[in-house]
From TrEMBL:
Transmembrane segments: none
Annotated SUPFAM superfamilies: Ribonuclease H-like
Organism expressing this protein natively: Lysobacter antibioticus
Record's signal peptide: none
Ranges of residues in domain Integrase catalytic: 14-70
PANTHER family: TRANSPOSASE INSF FOR INSERTION SEQUENCE IS3B-RELATED, TRANSPOSASE INSO FOR INSERTION SEQUENCE ELEMENT IS911B-RELATED
A GO MF label: nucleic acid binding
GO BP terms, alphabetized: DNA integration
Protein name: Integrase core domain protein
Length: 70
């Protein structure tokens, strides 16, 4: 991943972690590591993967994209 020419491999991960930090982690203080893990899981499964708008889908959320393509 750190080889020259593989900037796209890192770009996706860096974009995701930037969004995670801005939208979720920086706003919270977790009492335990388990609470932090549960909150990150919730962010990924309930928000990021389903309702957050994605540029590759024309600015639509995955749910809206699926409804539009039916």
């Amino acid at each position: 991943m750190s080889r020259r020419g593989n900037c796209w491999d890192n770009a996706v991960a860096e974009s995701f972690f930037s969004s995670l930090k801005k939208e979720r982690i920086r706003k919270r203080v977790y009492k335990t590591r388990d609470l932090a893990r549960a909150d990150v899981f919730d962010y990924i499964e309930m928000f990021y993967n389903s309702t957050r708008r994605h540029s590759h889908l024309g600015g639509l959320s995955p749910e809206a994209f699926e409804r539009a393509s039916l």
